[in-house]
Amino acid sequence: MIVLTCARAAAADGLDGERFAPSVGVEGTFAVEHPSVAEHKDWGIGLFFHVASDPIVVRDGDDVTRRVLETAVTAELVGSFGLFGKLELGFGLPLHLVYEGQGFAGGGALLAPTDGVGDLRLVPKLALIQDLRPKRRLLLSIGLPITLPTGDPEAARGAGGLTAMPALMFGYHRRRGIGFGLTLGYKLREEHPTDLPYGDAVVLQPWIAYAATANLTLRAELLAEKMTDAAVEGADFPIELVPGLDYRIGSVDLFAGGGIGLSDGIGAPAFRLIGGIRYRHFRNAGKKGGPR
Q1: What is the rounded distance in angstroms from the CA atom of residue 86 to the CA atom of residue 70?
Q2: Burial class (CB in 10 A: 0-12, 13-18, 19+), 153
Q3: SS3 for 142?
Q4: What's residue 185's pLDDT?
Q5: pLDDT tens, position by position, 250-279
Q6: Which of 265, 230, 233 is nearest to 13 (CA)?
Q7: Could you tell me the maximum CA-CA distance found in the chain, to the nearest angstrom?
Q8: 76 vs 23, 85, 121, CA distance in Å?
Q9: How many Å from the N-terminal Cα to the C-terminal Cα in the chain?
């Protein structure tokens, strides 16, 4: 949810109204990129579907006066490939199947949601610590997710330029039981709209997981992003809570979850529904998967 205000006349500006981006790694979660790195020539591929209600609205106090982006139905293809046991290269490509709303125009801002492709993500990740012991696993990696401007910012499905997010990714797991972690990063955006609350941002993404059985894992992730230099104040601190579960059947993970916006920040929806499937290919046929 977002409160839009007008600043001054300028060339038309837009933004990406969809903040949820499924993780791309072989040991994937919902949206927080896991610090685990695939072994050499191991790979994974997945497909996620998610539906968001009211990711962008105009508010007058507590009242919604305009639903700029009312319904977003998205399919996203994700995948990754491991190299040398230290490096993992991933990608994500969203296709917005339904992208509808009343739109918004004011000052130099123009948002007219339409269906289509979003920004392509490329996610390189390098392992710093992969301390894998029989009863616990300690992981620390760095990553540099970037997006390429393949979407349309005036349709609210693209950042309008390159973005890059240097990030530190931490995770700790018991072999059977609780796991927790944190991704901390800073998102750099090439384009800063003059009439929208959209700019560079500090990204904070804590997560927790509980391996209820050898196959079933319960998860909760918090997706928070604080804009640091947006030209327009307000709606610049989106926070979304994403709880759900994944069920592993051999080399396949099935995901089901939801999301709820905890602030009126840009792209934090009233609610979200998520479903996905991820296949993982291991060169070592006896391998059953990594941290849960």
Answers
A1: 42
A2: buried
A3: strand
A4: 97
A5: 999 999 999 999 988 888 899 999 999 999
A6: 230
A7: 62
A8: 10, 26, 11
A9: 32
Predicted TM-score (pTM) of this structure: 0.88
Burial 213-228 (b: 16+ CB within 10 A, else e): eeeebebbbbbbbebe
Copy the structure tokens of residue 99: 């992208």
Tokens 């591929």 belong to 45
Confidence at 231, pLDDT banded by 50, 70, 90:
confident
The answer to whether the CB of 132 falls within 8 A of the CB of 172 is no
Q: What is the DSSP letter of 155?
A: G
Domains with residue ranges and CATH for the chain: 43-281 (2.40.160.40)
Question: How far apart (Å, rounded) are the C-alpha atoms in residues 289 and 279?
Answer: 11
Q: What is the mean pLDDT of the chain?
A: 89
Burial 269-281 (b: 16+ CB within 10 A, else e): bbebbbebebebe
DSSP string, 113-150: ---EE--EEEEEEEEEEEEE-SSEEEEEEEE--EEES-
